[in-house]
Amino acid sequence: MPEIIATTVYRLEELSEAAKEKARAWYREAAFDHDWFEFVYDDFERICEILGVELKTRAVRLMGGGTRQEPCIWFSGFWSQGDGACFEGRYGHARGAPARIREHAPKDSELHRLADALQAIQRRNFYQLHAAISHRDRYYHEYTMAIAVERDSPTWQDMTADAEEAVTEALRDLAGWLYRQLEREYEYLRSDGVVDEAILANEYTFTAGGRRFG
User: Fold this and answer.
1) Torsion angle (degrees, nearest 10) of CA 136, 72, 163, 106
2) What are the residues whose beta carbons fall under 8 Å from the beta carbon of 118, sequence distance 6 or more?
3) Statement: the pTM of the whole predicted model exceeds 0.85
4) What pLDDT, on a 0 to 100 scale, did the predictor assign at position 7?
């Protein structure tokens, strides 16, 4: 015959410190939002638009059928030396990018530097540079991005000697910037304070030892 077993459950604030750590570990493993990076991606798409990068998209199947378009952005992290982020798309001159990026991210000096660098090299090439950006290899970091820089000159002028290196370096630095934002967001969302807030907001309960129950 079935039996009824009474078990005392506790909210997070009622647990010992050791049990709290077990409860947090459960949340990070089982309840952490797997789409935690979407906000960072959304901001990155806006930044790319400002800087003149048109991200390539790919079709992703939806659970209920159909597809949606997602940007070609990839990353791996955050534990090994080969981790990083990369993206695919096309780059071309964006009018007013330095001013617009400062309006969008007034305190981010790295983005300001990238916008200024791209503007400077475009100016020396009469704003005719563009680049195709593709991903190669099975890893995801800035050096797995193949970047082909060209100058679209109506008079067949070559690009300046420093153009290819300057554009490539700026776009790879942009991928590095994205990775640092992802790492920062990941560490923030998995911090004790944020995890505790999520556990309390969802009213999760645990045994005295910190095992999820209820």
Assistant:
1) -140
2) 51, 52, 93, 97, 166, 167, 170
3) yes
4) 86
